[in-house]
Here is the input.
Amino acid sequence: MNVYRLLKLATGKSVPLWAKLLGLWGFHLGGRRHIGVFLDPVLACNLRCRMCLFSDAGARAKMKGVISPERFELVRKAFFKRAVKLQIGCAAEPTLYPRLAEIVKAGRADGVPYISLITNGQLIASGRVSLRELVTSGLDEITVSLHGTRAETYEYLMPGGRFDNFVELLRQIRDVKKDYPGFKTRVNFTVNSMNVDDLRENRFFDIWPEGLLPDIVQLRPVQQLGECEWDDFDPAPLEAAFDATIGNVASICRRLGITVLAPDKSQLYEVATEQDGGSAIIENINYCYVSAASAYRDDFVLGEEDYDGYYRRTHVSRRLLRAVFNPGSFSRRRHISKKLNYRVK
Here is the structure.
């Protein structure tokens, strides 16, 4: 059993909190892989999607920086040996980074079990970035941002993007998967009052070329995560159309054997999820965000310590072990998470 499956077992929803904490403590103490590294190699984007902070001039001005080769090597040495997953691209567009394949190769060389890329795909479709090179370098999954299955909704919600390029991207993915059938395709569709009708009938699947279907479909109700041009965050239109849209796509996915991550109708209003302190501490330890401007925690000293050294200094193993025997001590400490609770179907 690989470390990715072990970690899922240790932190699954059906596992009691004390057992999750004990599993995390064991992974941590035993030097096992147990963190996700979420890397933005460049803080920029080629699009100005209306639901994204890059559509706001003020927010966009604050998003600057490119990881230098020297800084990347420090990041690699500090975190990759403990990473169960490397996700390239979080809050920006990673295909703007000129040495993207080198990051994938480094992750594979360091034994990271799963490497994924989140992208709008426009630069791949245009030929400026080679998907085949990324996959031959060790990329396991591509997550494609999609905000419309018709040209008019796609191009309105994703200014700077061309729907024809998205269709070309799907063709390129299909061709690569012929040689690399294990390569995964995930689609992240952010649903709002304008594009919800793009999920009716068979509109979501009609755009896929013959011989290709997504492996994973993620349907996300729009959230206000910061300043952006889009200003309609009311879930009521999504609720009213749920069965014919989000529910429709989920049903087709189940029939086709596609994994779908989607909220139930009642969960459309659950944007801010309350967490107990124990769950928050697990997320806090496992989630490692890195960019040109930050590295994991505000008090993490990149270049002077690695992941293990940081936790020795901050005595996290001791805190985890205390929590194992007294998980109730965290129940009074509540945290708010913007991560949605999906049903995996």
